Backbone:
């Protein structure tokens, strides 16, 4: 029954695993550990430099690599490839070490098997970033990385499977929702082979032939059964399924980015998107969080916050920032989406409740939201691309070993004038993606009335796009404080 | 079941050697990092006062004046002062300048704030007696409009 796919194409799609070098590397059982180890070394350097290095953000690898390079490369890799940063995630290595001593025996609590906790943590990180000016503090950035390692270790040492990745990790959720518009997906190469499979190693793991209790290669820890898996949601690209499948029938293939956002099959480990309000809310927080995060870096936000502080008669930065978050992450999406859903219901005379309409179309905003995240983070990456070089040189120079030469503090990156058109391009790409997903959702759910359903949501996408373009054209103003600052 | 109730009921977390082993692992992990303290700033005896015009500054050109004095409040003339300006956000392009001594012990440089936000300047002063001093001058809240 064994069938090895030697072609680099799977159903007309490119299979990364069959490419020379890359394919050989990913098929190697220890490829992930190598990538994680490299990232771990970088993370340790960042922590040490953040704690003991100069407390100047531009001169510290902790802040520089976290807020400029990591975020920038993360979104660009998600855009051009897939969730490879989860694949190389170093936070998993300490837990792997802990599991050498003992395996967890508890299941993650049933009432927490959703995205609500991770959504709350995602908002908390965005809030802390603004309130505590994390970008400007190597010390706190180092502790944020330590906290991440600790949380991953704590959760996964006590709970079975990849509970931290699936239910807790805010970066993971960002990567999962972003990777729905990525061009690569881990999926079955030939469904006919799976139809005859009786062992289901891709989810159960590969057992030792003489001892069925001994798992020699684990299966998917995120409960994604390959034959029933659709899209990238919840997939960390760990490739455990690739290594476990005895038929070599799991591939990393190209697909139409975003297509999983309009399809609504029952997905293994997830269920139907239309039944998952937590995922819809994640999509909305992801999208409006992109606007909020970009808004936090431009000049008008300070005038607005000053005005808000006056109205609230407070000098508490936390109170004003909390109100801003509430307005932009709750009030704004509720109002805009309710209007769009109401018009859709009225024009199509569907008679359905507003909430299901909102939850259905929430996924259509993801490409736009991702476009804005890419535009924002790629700006910082590209304009500050080479800034890590003088900082690294200065570390060696500080040790009295200027082996890399004197720090070239003049190095930066691409000029802003060159990056601006790229930012617009990312935004436009996101808008096109959202319009496509909106159209397909309308087509699948409203048939002949698809245009009447499509127009309100397309208009919403255009409004958000215009807001994002307006944001990009505002003068940047990166202040740590706004009240009396 | 409520999360904390679930975690702590019947001493779930501390009921076996395996979990005790994990707890020790966590403790060791935290102890390794908990001893760390942020480095303290070091200030030399030489005093540096500064002034910027316009105050508050906005995006565009501004003039930075620096006065160096010793412990007897006598101005220190003949120093060579280099300046590096940068933002609190990492990844921005810094600018460099050498300050002119406009009167004994008083130094000035024209600087350009290319973006609104929090700025700082690293001031490296080489005194006539070859001592090299470093100061940091913070200029928060440069307005973009």
Residues:
């Amino acid at each position: 029954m064994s069938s090895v796919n030697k072609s680099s194409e799977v159903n007309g799609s490119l299979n990364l695993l069959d490419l020379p070098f890359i394919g050989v590397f990913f098929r190697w059982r220890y490829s992930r550990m190598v990538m994680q180890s490299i990232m771990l070394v970088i993370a340790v350097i960042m922590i040490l430099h953040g704690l003991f290095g100069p407390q100047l953000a531009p001169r510290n690898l902790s802040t520089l690599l976290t807020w400029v390079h990591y975020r920038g490369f993360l979104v660009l890799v998600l855009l051009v490839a897939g969730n490879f940063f989860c694949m190389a995630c170093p936070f998993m290595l300490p837990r792997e070490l802990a599991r050498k001593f003992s395996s967890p025996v508890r299941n993650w609590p049933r009432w927490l098997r959703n995205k609500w906790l991770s959504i709350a943590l995602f908002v908390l990180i965005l809030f802390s970033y603004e309130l505590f000016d994390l970008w400007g503090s190597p010390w706190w950035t180092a502790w944020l990385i330590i906290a991440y390692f600790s949380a991953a270790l704590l959760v996964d040492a006590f709970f079975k499977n990849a509970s931290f990745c699936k239910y807790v990790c805010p970066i993971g959720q960002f990567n999962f929702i972003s990777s729905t518009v990525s061009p690569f997906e881990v999926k079955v190469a030939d469904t006919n082979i799976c139809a005859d499979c009786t062992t289901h190693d891709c989810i159960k793991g590969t057992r030792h032939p003489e001892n069925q209790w001994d798992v020699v290669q684990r299966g998917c820890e995120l409960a994604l059964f390959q034959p029933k898996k659709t899209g990238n949601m919840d997939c960390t690209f760990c490739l455990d399924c690739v290594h476990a499948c005895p038929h070599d029938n799991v591939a990393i293939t190209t697909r139409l980015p975003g297509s999983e956002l309009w399809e609504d099959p029952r997905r293994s480990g997830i269920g139907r998107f239309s039944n998952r309000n937590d995922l819809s809310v994640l999509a909305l927080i992801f999208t409006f969080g992109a606007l909020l995060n970009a808004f936090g870096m431009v000049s008008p936000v300070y005038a607005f916050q000053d005005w808000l502080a006056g109205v609230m008669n407070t000098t508490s930065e936390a109170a004003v920032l909390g109100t801003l978050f509430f307005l932009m992450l709750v009030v704004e999406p509720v109002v805009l989406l309710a209007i769009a859903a109401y018009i859709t219901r009225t024009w199509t005379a569907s008679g359905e409740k507003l909430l299901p309409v909102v939850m259905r179309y929430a996924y259509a905003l993801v490409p736009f939201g991702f476009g804005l995240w890419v535009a924002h983070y790629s700006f910082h990456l590209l304009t500050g691309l080479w800034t890590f070089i003088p900082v690294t040189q200065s570390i060696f120079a500080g040790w009295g070993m200027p082996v890399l030469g004197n720090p070239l503090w003049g190095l930066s990156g691409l000029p802003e004038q060159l990056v601006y058109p790229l930012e617009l391009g990312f935004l436009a790409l996101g808008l096109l993606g959202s319009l496509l997903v909106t159209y397909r959702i309308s087509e699948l759910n409203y048939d002949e009335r698809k245009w009447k359903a499509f127009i309100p949501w397309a208009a919403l996408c255009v409004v958000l796009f215009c807001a994002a373009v307006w944001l990009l054209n505002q003068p940047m103003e990166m202040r740590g404080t706004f009240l009396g600052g | 079941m409520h999360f904390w109730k679930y975690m702590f009921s019947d001493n779930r977390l501390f009921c076996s050697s395996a979990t005790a082993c994990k707890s020790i692992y966590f403790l060791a992990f935290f102890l390794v990092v908990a001893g760390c303290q942020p480095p303290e700033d070091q200030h030399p005896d030489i005093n540096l006062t500064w002034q910027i015009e316009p105050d508050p500054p906005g995006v565009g050109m501004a003039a930075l004046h620096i006065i160096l004095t010793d412990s007897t409040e006598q101005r220190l003339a003949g120093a060579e002062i280099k300046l590096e300006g940068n933002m609190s956000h990492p990844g921005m392009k810094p600018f460099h300048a050498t300050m002119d001594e406009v009167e004994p012990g008083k130094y000035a440089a024209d600087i350009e704030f290319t973006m609104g936000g929090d700025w700082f300047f690293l001031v490296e002063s080489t005194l006539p007696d070859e001592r090299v001093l470093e100061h940091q001058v913070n200029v928060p809240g440069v307005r973009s409009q």
About this structure: Chain A has 20 helices and seven strands. Residues 317-348 of chain A form the longest helix (32 residues). The longest strand of chain A covers residues 211-217.
